[in-house]
Fold this protein.
Amino acid sequence: MNILFSLAAGLVFGLGLIVSGMANPAKVLDFLDLAGMWDPSLAWVMGGAIAVAFGAFALAKKRTSSLLGLPMQLPTARGIDRRLVGGSLAFGFGWGLAGICPGPAIVLVGAGVAQGLIFVGAMLAGMSLVEFLRRGR
Amino acid sequence: MVIDWVHYTPLASLLGGVLIGLAAALFVLVNGRIAGISGIVGGLLRPRMGDLMWRVAFIVGLLTAPWLFQVFAPLPEIQVGAGTATLLVAGLLVGIGTRYGAGCTSGHGVCGLARLSPRSLVATLSFMLTGFVTVFAVRHLLA
């Protein structure tokens, strides 16, 4: 059952990325280009998503299990460290270079965009590298 | 600052945002999980029993979304300006950065901010900052 809901959530999430314009890298770069012809559209994506999800997370925080009886797995990390900030800064650097973040990258692959495949390949390599270094310690 | 009114799509972007929020809300309430794409993908690289299929299903959903969309309307324009070398560097940075930073635009930017996580606020401000700076450098300093 939870597999079915995962599929549905991924599907709705992906449709949201397409409808919102997040799946178009050119639009993402125009949003990040404050000094050029600025397209502020994508601020509405984050605003709309947070507004809708806010109540759900407030409810989720009070529960120990999900509606399907699965454990409620909210992040427990609290510390703000160099890994968090350094990693996020590096992510933003890559995001600003191509205008692609992980969700839209996968949608691009689904849409049959060749550049999406190249990006996802490199992204998986980067993620594997971090995983490899973690295991080595 | 000059607003690009021609390409400004507040309604479509808001509607898309609402769909993303609905997916994240459904996901946490029903499955008890954060809809963070980098985390969902990253977990596949560290396979554990019983922890695999829901990740694959979510990703299949993302992959299928363009197909479902096309049942109702032609796909909106997708324009990738970056060349192969840039895509490779950008992909690597996004892969490494999101795993060290424990999240991306969805996990930190949507779910994290919606649950008022200070860590996610710091992460979101950090990647927004370098996102803005990088585009400024590429389009206005190096071009």
